[in-house]
Hints:
This protein is mainly beta. It has seven helices and 61 strands.
Amino acid sequence: MSSLLLNKKVTIIFTIVILVVVTNYAKAGCDLRMYEVRIIDRKSHYHAGDSIKIVGTAFVVKLYEKLEEPDKVVLDFYAGDYHIGSMVPYYVISSNGQVHFNDDMDWTIPNDMPAGSYAISAKITCAEDYNPDNDIAYATPDIIVQEIPLYGDLSITAVSAISPWSSDLFNQGGEIKFGFSIDNLDPVASDSYAVNFSVGNYFIGSVSCSPIGPYETFNINETEPFVVPLNVSSGSYTITGEVVCLNDGLTSNNIKQSAERIRVATLYQDISVIFVSTVGNNFKPGDSISVNAIIKNVGTFVAENINAEFYLGEDVIGSTNASDLNPELTETLGAECKIPDNLPDGFYTVKVRVTCNGDIDSSNNVMESGTSFWIGEIADLEVKSVQAANGTYMPGDMLTIYGLVKNIGDDVSNAYSVDYYLSTDSIITTWDYHIGHVNRGALEPGEQHSYNTTFKLPPNLPASNYYVGLNIICQEENNSGNNSGFDSETIGIIHPANYVCGQVKYEYPGYNDQAVRYALLKVYDKNNSTPNREIAQTYTDQNGNYGVVVLRDTMSAQSIYVKVFTDSISGAYPETIGKICSVKDDVSHAVYSIESSLYLHPQDSSRTIDVRVPLAQRAFMVYDSMVEAFHQAKTFFGIEMEEITTYWPSSANGTYYYPSEGIFISKDDEWDRDIILHEYGHYIAEVYNFAQGDVGENPTHYWDMDLRTNPVARTEEHAANLAFRESWPTLFSITSQLANHNYPHSGDAKYQDYYSYYNWTYEFDLEEDTFDNDSPGEYYDNMNCCLLWDIFDDHPDRSDFKETISDPNLYKIWNVVRGYKPENMNDFWIGWHHRYGQEEDIEGVIDIFQQHRMTFAESGAAPGLPQNHAPVAAAGQDRVVSQNRADGAMVHLDASGSYDPDGDAISHIWRHGYIRYNSVQLDILLPVGKTELELEVSDGTITSWDTVAVTVTPTN
């Protein structure tokens, strides 16, 4: 449950010097102390004539008069009784009692020193030093002086193998190159030598090398190529390098094995198609269509003369050729193809067939695109006209809009929806002020819909002139470029008497100010008899705007102010019924707030009061991240999470989610939206009861660490549960923000953690880290998380930077975690096969599991699935009912049509937002407009869902 911790090693060395300066004594001279002597180059063995680097530190214990001349002080270094050097201060002893020498010096071991063990010492002398007892210090440990050898000592320190394929794969009879590093550890040059290389017990070859000078290193990054013998069996091997020198002083360090193993395989060519896609959804016979196929060489030898043909049915519609492709590499093949003129209307998929010379397996050479597209007559809805009743309006007024939509295509359209907006410019987007939504039926070719629709203007509209526009959304529609329209004449928004409005933003260093969204806002007056009297309450919208009519009576003061809280308000987020969150102090449990300056009461006019939250009020940054987490959960999964309390700064000085209590954010993490959304991901998992397995007593964890042993010992089950439990929230945090470029550090595949104390950001990239190759992968949260990322990204290659959000709502991953409630990645593997095991891309998913070193997926075989079938959820047909109460309509829902194919007992849960009803039948009051309710049916192992839309139409 804790947020990601970092595996950081920080060594801090403190040197504390206490200087005692004594003056005004009648006694002359000084007391110098030799404090420390150290050997800087940290060697333990030397030869006569070698260089040795030593540093000494001396202090003034007492100083009775200032020493003006540096030659009055000398520092001598000794090895045993052998004098090896002297130095004097580079400036005089200062009045603060410090002796300033050069930092370190290179000295020479005397040539006449015999072999043996010697203590290194330093002695400080001064003619006016009256206390010689503290003038000597010794270094530890002693040094060993050895006799100079006759020949150099060669040591091989590294050996590696280089594949022509930029991988660890090699072929029998194929090319192999080596890299190595040799050190001469002695003060005399070596003779010429050779380095022999072996793969396991198979000798490959050797290279001859020139002598190496004293204490020098010789590196070769890449030798000339050798040939892997044909008799080397297929398998995994260690590379061995051996130095052979006739006059080597020591042979025990002449052999080195590689840290990584290599693979040797039989030569064969095998091209596999791993992905096929098309650009576009609707086409007509004769149109051009762009088709792409990703192929991979899963063989062990270069694939040559690759050809790809693209089919619609049995018709070849295009082809392309590819250059040679090395083993384990991928390549994208694209072609512009022509749709045949005589194809009948219908949905089609493109198929690709790839061939190459010597391909040993043709079963993986054919694949169809995963999505279908329409060929034939196509509907095309166009906004022909938008007109609003011109004039001036106030927030809360009713606005009537006339719209005309026509099907200019040649096929009947689907039912479509219309969203209405007010915009300060003529470009209508979803970021404008949304004022309403309606659903419309299908349109025949050439038919048009014209209608008047009336909406209530929202209360938080700033005073301005607005364009009235609409945007239509229709499935399987030919051209979305003509789906928006606007009235060329603007309407005016003015404010009523006693109206207070404005915008609330918070400061973010180095970036534009950010909106404080959906926050509780109160207006107070400063009447002296009843100070701080609340005269209005409202909330900010998605842009931080607010507007409200304030109370005016005989008690009203001349001055008013607004106060904004780190607290949401029920129904503030569009189409929700509950609150989002509140951010409180962890000690007092009080909600944070910010007050504006004083302003005059608007009286019979309006007053604009903007609020800019200063950087010091960082609780608002935490609040906005919590709002973003709620927004992303709603956007990605269509779920409305219940209000959650967040405490900042955490009194425990940590960041974590604690069930039933809330989210706790440390002082340094208020900047870190990635981390805060990670903790919200834990909250989602707890509410929907997955990733809740036992992780042992210590949930602390490190990225890229084996959680069985780091930072504490755990069972394999605990480690696997913890790895999955931490990987899911990280995936939610990064993927949900991937398309969001409106906030610092969002819009990329990186998880970022900022440490304000060090002014340093730790980060890892799910795209780059996807192949860390830690094994077994099920015990590493980085391997778990990057596996989920690659399923989301739809492509397992490192740095493919697709980020096209091929699974834009994580819907497949969400369906598995929500429906099968996995505790670890093995459970997720089983759940995936339950849900998607029959789909064409299952082989690609299996490949992702294998590449992330999941041992349970090594065979590639589907897990042994229990004979249990998913229950069938039946929420009933969508309905339209008339309003029968002032506040909406009472509606009866019935899920008794749900059943389980195995006859298992099933449970029923109706969801309206975050409110849950445990019943088969439900009577519920719904407001005017369209409401979607979700039915969840479970047999205790597998969960299924169905939704029903109920539209309540207004009556008089």
